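for the writeup, i need someone to sanity check this before i put it in the appendix. the sequnce is what the collaborator sent (i think, or maybe the updated version? ugh). structure was predicted straight from it, no edits. if anything looks off just tell me and ill rerun, i have time this weekend
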Amino acid sequence: MKIQFKLKDQQSTTQTSIRCYLYYQTKRFVYSLGDDRKIIPELWDDVLQRPIKGKTKEDKAKIKAIQDLNPKSDIWTELSNIETRIDNLILEINTFSTNKEFNKQPLVLDELKDYLNGVFKKKQKEIIIQRKLNFNEFVEKFLKDISSGEKTFTTGNGERKQYAPSTVVAYKAFKKLFDGYQQSLRKQLNFEDITMDIYHHFINYLTAQDLKNNTIGNKIKYLKAILSMSYDEGLHDNIVFKRKEFKKFKSEVDNIFLTTQELSKLYELDLSSTPDFDRVRDLFLCGCYTALRYSDYSRLTADNFISREDKLFLRIITKKKDKKVIVPIRPELLRVY
């Protein structure tokens, strides 16, 4: 049995596949190393039937020239992977042949092909599955995982928590806007495409959508979070999001509030003739008297009322921050509640 390795197209100016030729008795068996193990002919050694190893100045110059033309590829790693595939293929062929010989069975080339496919096609599928996600794929998966509760986060005290529904909605809103931005560019952005120019251009795009500064700042916050999480997962090495200039910004806003006197007038207002208004007014005052978010005070029950030293308090786990808070109860709250 004789094994040789040759290129499919020695004259190709681009990558070409590598073929294994096995000669057994009077038959010839041809098997490709796979589409993931192609090579540029210039980097192939016909005599050794292997990729060049870069030991000579001439070989190093060839590899460097190809690397300069393909800056996003790691030529040295690709050559090493091809070498490993060749060694593994020879090993598997010899293993198959030895087993047949040991069991006193004939070596059938079709069976050898099926055996090699079982070994190497499976590995190629695993490589495809393990391929790193790009930016948009990561966002899709992230949204799916936080929506299902599969992905969690760590709180300040080390607890693992699921993302709040409101946070999921906010990330989905960001995705919708960023998808629209990419459509305006007529380009799908990947991690390495996110630069300071894109940062400023995205802000201009959001401004053109008539969004306020604080809303735009929140979208930048989600973009930074996505870049940070994907960076931590080893999906890219783009650290532009760490720059001081790549920041969430906000504007001061006029906070409109009711004075104590105005709240008292609202409290005393007789709305018994309009029950719906009466209930809405009471709910609104609950928020004013507790300083809780709507998502919290709108779900208060009798179980939230506690007594301590003859004084009444509200105790609740806030929905957004997932923190326990205890609020003193004003006398007015008892009536509206």
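The chain has eleven helices and ten strands. Residues 19 and 47 are 15 Å apart (CA to CA).
thx in advance!!
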